[in-house]
């Protein structure tokens, strides 16, 4: 930018021809800017149109929408049309490049570099915002009081529901399939956390959320989310250090526990005061902006002490939850989750290379066998956990275990982060995604059957 | 990502040491990813904290919040702490780099390149999302029916209020200050559009929005927004072509008019059907996602036919406005505007180099004289426009003219886009920003005085 002395005094103004030359020199930069803008817009439109299309189909055939978003990712990503390529499987499809070229008149090499560089950075960041705000919102919605009330019952289910699939999965993957420790730990960890979003939405649709079983499922789902994220932190820490060191495990577990316990304590001491402070500010969106600042800082704190960003986002949600303003904050987060978490789920699908699963190839069939094993452990482990429920009340243990089956978001987070650390090979990553898809697909009909059976029985006994 | 054959069969698994080596090789990439995440988080936090802090001060002393956001940009940008550097004025401040280094353990050169590259791309994109969604929402809120009702009265004020400052500004800048055509056109164009957001908020606070004067001001502000954006398109087109060609002006004006008229026609023919279609989809955020897709496509259409992106976003808002679902869509857009438009206003402040205005330097004083000239033309032009009102009703023409004074968003968009095209030198850009600040600062007290005088008079005559 020229100094004022060269511009402002009439005699010193650049002549018209000099200005023209500047414009001509800037033409290339402008073509680049145009190509970038078109590439970003095109990518965004493709992500949202595909997510809406497959999400709509999923909902219409009675499946959770998140499955449609994953399938949308398969369709436009490395497994499908190659429109959304995020670091593996080569360049973006020629047709996408051609559209950008048509509007921006840039060359194909530049456009490919735009897709591989800035567009990838932006989409990855949108996905990070999405999963961050999603886990923040799950934290906000985690009703700590209700959890304490359902108390030991939910805790017993949650612990059993985390330990059974974790131990059975880890044992099977190392003993039967001879996987090394780290991938086995990641894959087993991905079996632990129930999707609170999916299970509560299914139960709400079925009108059973307010039954005793529904409340215990919800409480246990919240608790195994916390446990699951702590285990995720352990798994990532272990993967980062390259080996399983007891001291580092203890350190990470300690940090994670301290972090979660700290969040629960801060929920009483700090959360209401911070929310109150934000609510007194004159900007009516101070609540949202202040919350985003806080979750950003918490993600940085988590990162600094060696935990994952998303644990920070989740803890931020726990801390700011359960105040009079929480509902408003949840509502303000919803559009952000709707847009950015959609990008997150689509990118998980887009990065998943399903073509490595080739049925003609005996090694690929082995990958499918692992996926099948993970799915069986995931379902049996959670259903069995229902029978570990410690209670004297007459509750349907099968219904509770079944309600814990869908993995969804957190399982996908495990898959995505596991792949990002480099600990998970493509095939294991695909096996985890297939497990998540399978558990999320089977849960709605299973739950429908179990609760129908339960109401038939109540009909007979009452 | 290794192929499945090398991973899945037990004998072919990489040994533990090989896995360790992979992790070590990935360590550098991970340090980079960590530095990037911390730099992005830090920048976001700084933008929001500064915006909240200065926005709060602005509101508490009775000024529009957007002024606080501009000042926040001055404070953290090139005029201030150098925390947010977006392409001019050198590297990011050492202290910001040190914070990133503390957490990520990356080297300073890498961190500087992260701030200059990915962080700049992300912040620029957030700002683009912000101004896009803001203009979409202004389009949504533009009540076409109401505008047609207040009709010729608002139109007469709007046209006079656009032409007077445009002509007087352009004449003065070229004849008195001897500026070349393009910068003079840009600076004069920036004088045209009233800030509908600011003026309606001021009138709402004063309880005069529903007076006849308030309604005419609102209608005229909507109309001169449309005219202003059309003039902006002309100015940018002219700057891009490097000279004032009658044919290109006619072409651009024709496109802009066709675009806006097309939007009004599509508001009847297409908007309600598209909204109705989106509302039938099962995802409760289909409305928002579908609107984002539509505004993205419209911004691409605008770009393709040679207009600016934001005109596409505004037209998308006009088209989807005035349906039963519009209020819900506005509400869903609000959190996005709250977050991303804040980034936009802060970046405008951050990019504005106020240090070029050095009072000890006679040339700088010349720049301040231009700012003063622009401000006087901006205020006198709009106040005078009130007296061009064609009506037989007894209305307060001074109040109407005064209500048109605040420029705000659209004026800042002109400054930002003008600087982006390279047509505006730093000093002229700063002069425009100072004019926007001055008009937005003086409008609230002026309006308060005018409406107080009016009610005193009514008190005497009634």
UniProtKB/TrEMBL annotation, chains A, B:
<feature type="transmembrane region" description="Helical">
    <location>
        <begin position="216"/>
        <end position="236"/>
    </location>
</feature>
<feature type="transmembrane region" description="Helical">
    <location>
        <begin position="156"/>
        <end position="178"/>
    </location>
</feature>
<feature type="domain" description="Cation/H+ exchanger transmembrane">
    <location>
        <begin position="57"/>
        <end position="451"/>
    </location>
</feature>
<feature type="transmembrane region" description="Helical">
    <location>
        <begin position="368"/>
        <end position="390"/>
    </location>
</feature>
<feature type="transmembrane region" description="Helical">
    <location>
        <begin position="66"/>
        <end position="85"/>
    </location>
</feature>
<feature type="transmembrane region" description="Helical">
    <location>
        <begin position="287"/>
        <end position="305"/>
    </location>
</feature>
<keyword id="KW-0406">Ion transport</keyword>
<keyword id="KW-0472">Membrane</keyword>
<keyword id="KW-0915">Sodium</keyword>
<dbReference type="GO" id="GO:0015297">
    <property type="term" value="F:antiporter activity"/>
</dbReference>
<keyword id="KW-0050">Antiport</keyword>
<dbReference type="InterPro" id="IPR006153">
    <property type="entry name" value="Cation/H_exchanger_TM"/>
</dbReference>
<dbReference type="GO" id="GO:0016020">
    <property type="term" value="C:membrane"/>
</dbReference>
<feature type="transmembrane region" description="Helical">
    <location>
        <begin position="36"/>
        <end position="54"/>
    </location>
</feature>
<dbReference type="GO" id="GO:0006814">
    <property type="term" value="P:sodium ion transport"/>
</dbReference>
<keyword id="KW-0813">Transport</keyword>
<keyword id="KW-0812">Transmembrane</keyword>
<comment type="similarity">
    <text>Belongs to the monovalent cation:proton antiporter 2 (CPA2) transporter (TC 2.A.37) family.</text>
</comment>
<keyword id="KW-1133">Transmembrane helix</keyword>
<keyword id="KW-0739">Sodium transport</keyword>
<protein>
    <submittedName>
        <fullName>Cation:proton antiporter</fullName>
    </submittedName>
</protein>
<dbReference type="GO" id="GO:1902600">
    <property type="term" value="P:proton transmembrane transport"/>
</dbReference>
<dbReference type="InterPro" id="IPR038770">
    <property type="entry name" value="Na+/solute_symporter_sf"/>
</dbReference>
<feature type="transmembrane region" description="Helical">
    <location>
        <begin position="248"/>
        <end position="266"/>
    </location>
</feature>
<feature type="transmembrane region" description="Helical">
    <location>
        <begin position="410"/>
        <end position="443"/>
    </location>
</feature>
<feature type="transmembrane region" description="Helical">
    <location>
        <begin position="184"/>
        <end position="204"/>
    </location>
</feature>
<dbReference type="Pfam" id="PF00999">
    <property type="entry name" value="Na_H_Exchanger"/>
</dbReference>
């Amino acid at each position: 930018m020229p100094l004022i002395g060269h511009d402002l005094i009439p005699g010193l103004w650049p002549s018209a021809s000099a200005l023209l030359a500047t414009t001509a020199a800037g033409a290339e930069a402008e073509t680049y800017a145009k190509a970038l803008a078109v590439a970003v817009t095109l990518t965004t439109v493709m992500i949202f149109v595909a997510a809406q299309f497959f999400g709509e189909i999923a909902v219409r055939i009675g499946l959770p929408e998140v499955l449609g978003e994953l399938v949308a990712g398969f369709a436009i990503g490395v497994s499908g049309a190659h429109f959304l390529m995020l670091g593996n499987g080569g360049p973006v499809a020629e047709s996408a490049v051609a559209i950008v070229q048509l509007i921006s008149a840039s060359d194909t090499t530049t456009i490919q570099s735009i897709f591989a560089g800035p567009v990838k950075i932006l989409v990855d960041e949108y996905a990070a915002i999405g999963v961050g705000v999603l886990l923040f919102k799950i934290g906000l919605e985690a009703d700590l009081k209700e959890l304490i009330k359902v108390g030991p019952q939910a805790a017993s289910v949650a612990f059993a529901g985390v330990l059974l699939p974790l131990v059975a999965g880890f044992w099977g993957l190392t003993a039967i399939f001879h996987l090394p420790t780290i991938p086995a730990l990641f894959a087993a960890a991905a079996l632990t956390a129930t999707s609170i979003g999916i299970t509560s939405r299914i139960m709400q649709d079925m009108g059973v959320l307010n039954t005793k079983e529904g409340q215990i499922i919800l409480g246990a789902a919240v608790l195994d989310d916390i446990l699951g994220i702590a285990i995720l932190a352990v798994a990532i820490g272990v993967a980062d250090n390259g080996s399983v060191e007891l001291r580092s495990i203890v350190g990470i577990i300690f940090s994670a526990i301290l972090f979660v316990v700290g969040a629960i304590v801060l929920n009483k001491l700090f959360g209401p005061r911070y929310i109150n402070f934000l609510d007194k500010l004159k900007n009516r969106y101070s609540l949202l902006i202040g919350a985003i600042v806080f979750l950003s800082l918490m993600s940085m704190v988590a990162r600094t002490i060696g935990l994952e960003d998303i644990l920070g986002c989740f803890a931020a949600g726990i801390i700011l939850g359960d105040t009079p303003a929480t509902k408003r904050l949840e509502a303000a987060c919803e559009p952000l989750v709707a847009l950015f978490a959609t990008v997150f789920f689509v990118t998980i699908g887009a990065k998943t290379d399903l073509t490595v699963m080739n049925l003609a190839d005996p090694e690929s069939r082995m990958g499918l066998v692992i996926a099948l094993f993970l799915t069986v452990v995931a379902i049996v482990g959670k259903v069995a956990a229902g029978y570990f429920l410690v209670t004297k009340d007459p509750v349907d243990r099968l219904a509770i275990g079944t309600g814990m089956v869908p993995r969804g978001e957190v399982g996908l987070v495990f898959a995505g982060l596991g792949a990002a650390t480099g600990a998970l090979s493509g095939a294991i990553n695909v096996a985890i995604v297939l497990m998540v898809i399978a558990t999320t697909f089977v849960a709605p009909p299973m739950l429908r059957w179990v609760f129908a059976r339960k109401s038939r029985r109540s009909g007979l006994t009452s």
